[in-house]
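RECORD CONTENTS
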Amino acid sequence: MDALEILTSRIVLATEADDEVENLESVLKSLIEKGREQGYLTFDTLTESLPDRILGSEEFDNICQAFADLNVVICEVAPKDLADLKSESEETLSEESLLNISDAAGKTMDPVRMYMREMGTVPLLTREGEIVIAKRIEDGIREAMRVLASYPGPVEHILAAYDNLLANQEDPNVILDVSSIIAGFLDPETEIPDTSLIAEAKSSGKFEESETETHNGPDPEMVSARFAALAKTHKALGRLAAKHERGTPKYQAGLSKLQDVFSLLKLVPAMMDPIVAMVQSDMALIREQEKTIRQLCVSKCGIPTSVFLERYGVCQTDVAFVDSLEKSGEPWANKIKANRVSLRHAVKTMRRVAEARGLSVPEIKETNKALQSAINVMRFAKKDMIEANLRLVISIAKKYTNRGLHFLDLIQEGNIGLMKAVDKFEYRRGFKFSTYATWWIRQAITRSISDLARTIRVPVHMMETVNKINRLSRQLLQELGRPATIEELSIKMELPQDKVIKALDVAKQPISLETPVGDDDDSTIWNLVSDTSVESPLDHAAEEGLRETTNDALTALTEREAKVLRMRFGIDMNTDHTLEEVGRQFSVTRERIRQIEAKALRKLRHPARSEQLKSFIER
């Protein structure tokens, strides 16, 4: 089996079109040749060459595995030297084999050990490595901003948010807070200060805190100038759009200027996410309509895929496409006529989306693809930065154990702080990332302890009282040699006894139902807590035994005597009955019923019958 057959055998073709199969085979063939020539392929090469339907699916993983079987390495960036790549691969394999041997020997399922072992495989970053990753993050953000600037809507959204801040500013003399819009600027020309010089300045006392430590956001004057330039460039592009088509050189020159200005802004996630969603929501709606059109034409009406692609590709938003299929005279024309309403609705929906943005469907698709590529660059770079600093989270989380949160929970909260630090890190200020991230990690952990450590949240003033009582209790224990009483604590605290009791009750820590009991950890407290809503098995068994024994004892009586006792004592009935009620039932006097009852009870008191009933008497 040749290389092409190996690859195609890993892919489940989701189309019946011969031309699509041939195109895919030609793409795979070129990738095989390139991979064998270089010895590697990058993810960017695969994503640019393969169809969109394969990217992100199981078929993409199968293709990567097939290339690995062909000794073609798949990597994120092109290596400088193939020999280095192979040596790194061999080192990685040797490390993985050692880990596998360790796993086979230990067979540990402890999540903490597994997490730390996997974390240890990621090397630490130097200052230069941090700068490289930070630049990758900025490159991804900058490229995403350029793509968004070319799409109608995002620039207008940001300018409207800034104008809204200006309109709601109460005091013009107060510095405008733009932290809800931008986190800073992405200026590639900014020089990176030397950390060694900063350290020397600190040690010599010549370091000015105001220049770095007290940085409270971008310079207000620069913010005003940048947004004024953005508004001016945007208006100029609007005037060009009224005179020139989108693809003309003059329009493209104006668009390039807008992209240059807009790409300098570093938006906060609350601003970035909505404008990214503009493109993604439009693309999702287009994909949904295309899927509907394809299902109706190919699956429901039976149009060959090749014919559908040939006719649909040139008129994606033209309802004449439906009319041409209906008037084609082909065998499936009548089925098209029956589904023409749904088809026309889907085509018109796509046209409305395109017209609302002033773009064609292919342009929207191209914009979405470029945006997704830029976001992936940023996402992978952030992932590398986070994974390389997970050990920092562990070292900080160890200092906060036994504070009410499990160690794994502390790690997770610290990781959240680490991710925030990656989003806000500014490498141009000259500090290492770990210096900056430590504050965010510690802040996230301490806040989570105060919010999540207790199952029931206690007000701050009550926690202060509890802490004072605990300190006083330890002090009195040392002075008196015994635990202090409520009265003694009340006198020392100058609080009423009921408040001291309430504070001590609040101080009690709830116990988890999952807490193991015993040395074997076979059972938990959950297994030992009784369910008050369900009858106890012991009581149920005793009740059943009493019922059976009583019925057996009543069988020794006559039918009349047994019924009188059942009615008098409510046996197997909802309630007991008076002598008069029983007498009416038997049409006799109440005195006669009393006599029958007394006679029946004398029979039951006989030792042969009463011995079994005595065991049920409550002691």
Observations:
- Residues 460-528 form a domain with the Arc Repressor Mutant, subunit A fold (CATH 1.10.10.10).
- Strands lie at 40-42, 73-75, 182-185, 265-267, 516-517, 523-524.
